[in-house]
Amino acid sequence: MDRDVLNTIPGELLSAALHSLPDAASSEENTLQIVVELPDGIRAEVTFARLKRPYIKKGSGSWFWTPASEVIISDEQP
User: Fold this and answer.
1) What is the per-residue pLDDT for 22?
2) Is 32:20 a contact under the CB 8 Å cutoff?
3) What are phi and psi of 11, to 5 degrees?
4) Which residue from 17, 38, 52, 76 has the fewest beta carbons nearer than 10 Å?
5) Do 45 and 33 contact (CB within 8 A), yes or no?
6) Using 50, 70 and 90 to split pLDDT, how confident is the model at 7?
7) Per-residue pLDDT tens over the stretch 16-45
C-alpha cells in the first residue's frame, strides 16, 4: 500500500524516530528512512529530510531533520 499518512502518525512516534537519526549537521545524507510501527500494528516508512535553518543575524545556519513523507509499508494488523 502506498498512501501518504503524514497526519496520522502520532507526534511522539515521529519524535522517537527523529532522535534515532544521526546529527544533521555532520550527516552526509540528505534524506533518511525510518520504519515506525503505529499503535494499531500498521508499519509506516518515514522519510526525514535534512534542512538548514538560516540565522538572520549571523549569516550561518543550523541543520535539522524534518519529516518529509510517510507511506504505509504494511497494513497487516496483529
Assistant:
1) 96
2) no
3) -55, -35
4) 76
5) yes
6) confident
7) 999 999 999 999 999 999 999 988 888 889
pTM of the entire predicted model: 0.79
- As a whole number of angstroms, the distance between CA 19 and CA 37 comes to 15
Strands (E) across 4-42 are located at 31-37
- Alpha-carbon dihedral sign for residues 34, 15, 71, 48: negative
Residue 71: strand, helix, or coil: strand
Beta-bridged to residue 37, according to DSSP, are 43
d(CA 65, CA 21): 8
- Cβ-proximal residues to 40 (8 Å cutoff; 6+ apart), any chain: 77
User: Which three cell numbers mark 53?
Assistant: 535553518
Domain boundaries, the chain: 6-74
- 4, pLDDT greater than 60: no
